[in-house]
Amino acid sequence: MKIIINSSSMVPIYEQIVDQIKTLIRNGELKESDALPSVRTLSKELKISALTVKKAYDNLESEGFTVTVHGKGTYVAATNTELLLEEQKKELEADLEQAILKGRRYGISDEDIKSLFELIMEG
Amino acid sequence: MKIIINSSSMVPIYEQIVDQIKTLIRNGELKESDALPSVRTLSKELKISALTVKKAYDNLESEGFTVTVHGKGTYVAATNTELLLEEQKKELEADLEQAILKGRRYGISDEDIKSLFELIMEG
Amino acid sequence: MKIIINSSSMVPIYEQIVDQIKTLIRNGELKESDALPSVRTLSKELKISALTVKKAYDNLESEGFTVTVHGKGTYVAATNTELLLEEQKKELEADLEQAILKGRRYGISDEDIKSLFELIMEG
Amino acid sequence: MKIIINSSSMVPIYEQIVDQIKTLIRNGELKESDALPSVRTLSKELKISALTVKKAYDNLESEGFTVTVHGKGTYVAATNTELLLEEQKKELEADLEQAILKGRRYGISDEDIKSLFELIMEG
DNA sequence: GTGGTCTAGACCACT
DNA sequence: GTGGTCTAGACCACG
What CATH number has the domain spanning D13-79? Predict the structure, then answer.
């Protein structure tokens, strides 16, 4: 499990974990029935609170990506990776839209917004 | 002063006020030496706490957009609108970059990200 | 009446007026029984609110420097200029003491405080 | 954390806290990465509102003396204590200058002002 | 547990 | 009237 935490990021730690595990599942690096590391193991590995890892796992479970067996551990559920990709695209779309709307609210021209976007994509 | 508050947004109310007043200043709808509505007036108008409006005004003052005279009111300071535009562009850039990085972290191809962006801009 | 208002100063306007009139009295530029300008006249001259001038005059009267005759105006009272000088010295002493105490609270050495003081006196 | 609040002072409580913490940092009693007491803890200790403590902490952070991590706490930032000393000296200088100017405005001789100053320093 | 935001209302100083 | 400070308590998000 190569999970990288950026504690100075504005994105909450638990969300960073959720995002990365989702992607691992979609990429096939985590397959159906694979066991995730235990809450305590991962928390020690990442040097964060076990409660934070648990919150991430809870989110994954409530979204259907994992199933937790009491006293045994957390396992990757059967997933439709196509569906997951769609979901992630929707999330990206929402983020992009919000950024664009903010730019327009600031009175920045669409041309300038496009230029900025392309600059970032190329950089 | 047409300020619109979205109380269900994750963006704090005081920040929404700050953003909108900054934009009003940059657009020339609020000119140098113009008086902002008093803290109490605006708080009644927006049906929010006076403290929340004050926090917004404090932020504007500490960033140099306004000057406050005790017992008199809050006024638009002399500002370099060029500089303000740059600042807002930087904010937009940061937002866009974060969205793009998230998309890539999700394993979405750059082509797909570009398509999504253009779709939103045209829609 | 040469009164100078610094509206960007931290010292309240009414206090600036009080201070300057006190000094005019002590220097003999305003003598016993001299009439002060009317509240409205002075407020127009200084381009400030009449209420602010009134507050200054009220202060002067309550400290015994002036007497106000209803319907006529405000006049300089009989004063002991020696006493006034003492009072002003005490005020200066209090201000200096507060500044010095602050410096010491900041952990600035007495030598540095003295150096600063002399620098200002000479500059 | 020995912080002393003088609630009858004209100096706002939050500013008293800011001043004293700045000094603790400059004196090395608070070192880089040290945790400040939590907002709630300090507010109980000083028997003041949590909001007042938070306002102090916000000020410290916006001036770069501390960093706050959501859900974790407030920590002393890496600071240039030399720079801080300079800043505090400037503040002292401004206070002394204002006192001296007031004395001169009162027509008190420079010799008298110096005498007063030395008396206070020795006392 | 932590900080972040918001409320409703109080009292004060200045104009 | 204005802004400046403070309170006591609420609800939320994060760890």
Answer: 1.10.10.10
